[in-house]
Write a structure and sequence with these properties.
Helices cover 41% and strands 19% of the residues. The chain is an alpha+beta fold and 137 residues long. The two termini are 13 Å apart. The chain binds guanosine-5'-diphosphate. Guanosine-5'-diphosphate (GDP) binds next to helix 4.
């Protein structure tokens, strides 16, 4: 059993597709072990995406991630990290396969609907960034 962190980004929250996206996870056999809607501060977003701090798109990414509330969730299931990445589709929605979350709900590479941990190791850190152990069950 594996856990991964999902973020439904501000564009998808604003569009009113939280339920549709959570349904994709549950329909694929991922259990929602924790979930909450929060407004990130600039400090939160900069810390969460610190690995991209030197990238040219970093400021745009941080501005976007604090432009409205997000929904963070812990998803649990066999191979949860890869399963979620498959459901999400490619980072650039133009390259995302038909039927993926980004193909169906994302606008562009900045406003790309969802985040998902890219490894089990990063998932552990990302989950602890947002959730206390008692919030996960
Ligand atoms: P992800 O794991 O598929 O979300 O992709 P990355 O971890 O590589 O990048 C994190 C986020 O930064 C992406 O989801 C995009 O929102 C944004 N991003 C990544 N690459 C680019 C880029 O080349 N240009 C822009 N504008 N944003 C990018």
């Amino acid at each position: 059993m594996e856990r991964t962190l999902s973020i439904i980004k501000p564009d998808a929250v604003a569009k009113g597709v939280i339920g549709k996206i959570l349904d994709r996870f549950e329909s694929a056999g991922l259990r929602v072990a924790a979930t909450k809607k929060i407004q990130l501060t600039r400090q939160d977003a900069e810390a969460f995406y610190a690995i991209h701090a030197e990238r040219p798109f970093f400021n745009d990414l941080v501005d976007f991630m604090i432009s409205g509330p997000v929904v963070v969730s812990v998803l649990e299931g066999e191979g949860a990290v890869l399963k979620n990445r498959d459901l999400m589709g490619a980072t650039d929605p133009k390259e995302a396969e038909a039927g993926t979350i980004r193909a169906d709900f994302a606008e562009n590479i900045d406003a790309n609907a969802v985040h998902g941990s890219d490894s089990a190791e990063n998932a552990v850190n990302e989950i602890h960034f947002f959730f206390a152990d008692r919030e996960i069950s």
